[in-house]
Amino acid sequence: MMGSAAGAPGEVQPSASRLRRSRGSRRGFAGTEEDFMKITKVSGVLALLLIAAAAACGKGEQPAEANATVEVTATAESAIGEGAYVEEHESGKAAFNVAADGNVKAAVTGPDGKPIREDVSGTLVWKDASGEKTVPLTLDAKTGLLVAAGPKLEADLTEIGYTLNVAGKPWNGTLHVPAGGTAELFANAKASAELGLPEGKLGPHGGRIEIVGDDRLELLVDEVTGEVRVYVLDADLKPIDIGERKITLGVVAEAPQVVVLAPAVATADVAATAAAGVAAGAYLTGKLALAADPLKLTIAVRNAGRSAVALCGYRAGAAFAVHARAPRVKVRVKTDWDAHVHALAQADLKAKADIDPKVHVHAGAGAAAKANAKANVHVKAPSVRVTPPSVNVQIKAPKISIPKPSFKASASARASAGAKIGAH
User: Fold this and answer.
1) How large is the average pLDDT for residues 351-371?
2) What is the DSSP letter of 6?
3) Residue 364's closest CA among 372, 356, 355?
4) In 30-146, alpha helices (H)
5) DSSP string of 12-58?
6) Quick one: pLDDT band at residue 399, thresholds 50, 70, 90?
7) Domains of the chain, each with CATH number or no CATH
8) Which of the four pLDDT bands, split at 50, 70 and 90, describes residue 197?
9) What angle do CA 314, 320, 326 make, to 5 degrees?
């Protein structure tokens, strides 16, 4: 009895009061006391789980709201099509879907990602070969989208300026859209991302490398003259012939501009001179008005009946920043192209002087100035003195006219003559 009451050695025996409480708390329970204790423990665990679940629900309110915001943004942009192109402004985002037939849908979202469907309007300015056309953006009450009907896209790149009035504040921007619309821009960005290039990889001439369709292009702009050159590279990033490629650039900088490049050897007479020693089809060239690196640079390539386009730095599905803090597209570099042109001009003039010894030009700067004047390149020369070797003067024989003598005498002369005769 004593062993039974005392229990196992080291075991703490419950007090009489605890036994009374436990017996009272299990009134109506038909099982043993051991079963009752097991149920009590399980109930406690369940209670703790319920409390933890309630706390988790409370903490999950903010993530749920953030997910809803993301979902609203995705819904707003998906409403205008998968090929939408999105620009990020200081106060929100503007998503555009420009179709090949000229129809436009746009969605505006605030900083919180929620769509703005009130107090919003806008205009588009279409620029093409025929001139400019202003097209209004109107709000579609059913979809909450801004819509417009512009001209059909026909050029390799069409410049479309936009102004959105959002709660009285203007959002301005410029799109350079290929003939296939923003869907083509989106698709080409996805395809280019799959090829990929090492981050920050430069071309053999020190220029920026961009993948446009099947082409790897190296692009660089002389920071002084604004001359732009585009080289076509092979898989090993070595220059190859440009072939029949036509390249058009759409630039957003101090002012938007569209420039069609030309093969270096097919430009003006000076270009052919400056390109001496450069193989035909080495690169395409043009001129850009840039005081700094551009905010946006779009490249369109047409070759063998096919076209491709790329917006430098753009990733499909991501918003492209166009606000004041947005990164710039690094394309401006220092080159020696201008010095090379001067050297070729000097060599050309010297060759002409060797052929014609009568031509003597004093001061090399004058030679460069003369050659570059033809090249429409302004060079300041300190002085020019031309010394002709000889002067060839043609003297015509003078016309000599001898007047006939006059035999008429005056009255006094006749009188004098008569007097002399009478005297004899």
Assistant:
1) 47
2) H
3) 372
4) 33-59, 61-78
5) PPPPHHHHHHHHHHTTT--S-HHHHHHHHHHHHHHHHHHHHHHHHHH
6) low
7) 68-177 (2.60.40), 182-335 (no CATH), 339-386 (no CATH)
8) confident
9) 110
Q: What is the pLDDT of residues 232-291, one digit of tens each?
A: 999 999 999 999 999 999 999 999 999 999 998 744 444 444 444 556 689 999 999 999
Report residue 406: phi and psi, to 5°: -105, 130
Nearest to 252 by CA among 170, 137, 329, 154: 329
User: 33-59 and 16-25 are packed helices; what angle lies between their axes, rounded to 10 degrees?
Assistant: 70
Could you tell me if 261 and 249 are in contact, meaning their C-beta atoms sit under 8 angstroms apart? yes
* Lowest mean pLDDT segment, chosen from 85-99, 180-194, 375-389: 375-389
Tokens of 362: 């004093």
Q: b vs e for 89-113, b when ≥16 Cβ sit within 10 Å of the residue's Cβ?
A: beebbbbbbbbbebebbbbbbeeeb
The residue count of the chain comes to 424
Tokens 């102004």 belong to which residue? 163
Say yes or no to pLDDT of 335 above 90: yes
Tell me how far CA of residue 215 lies from CA of 51, 121, 237, 332, 404, in angstroms: 61, 39, 11, 21, 94
Neighbouring C-beta atoms of residue 395, cutoff 10 Å: 5
**Whole-number average pLDDT of the chain:** 74
**Overall average pLDDT of the 287-304 stretch:** 96
Helices 33-59, 61-78: crossing angle, 10 deg rounding? 50
The β-bridge partners of 164 are: 122, 171
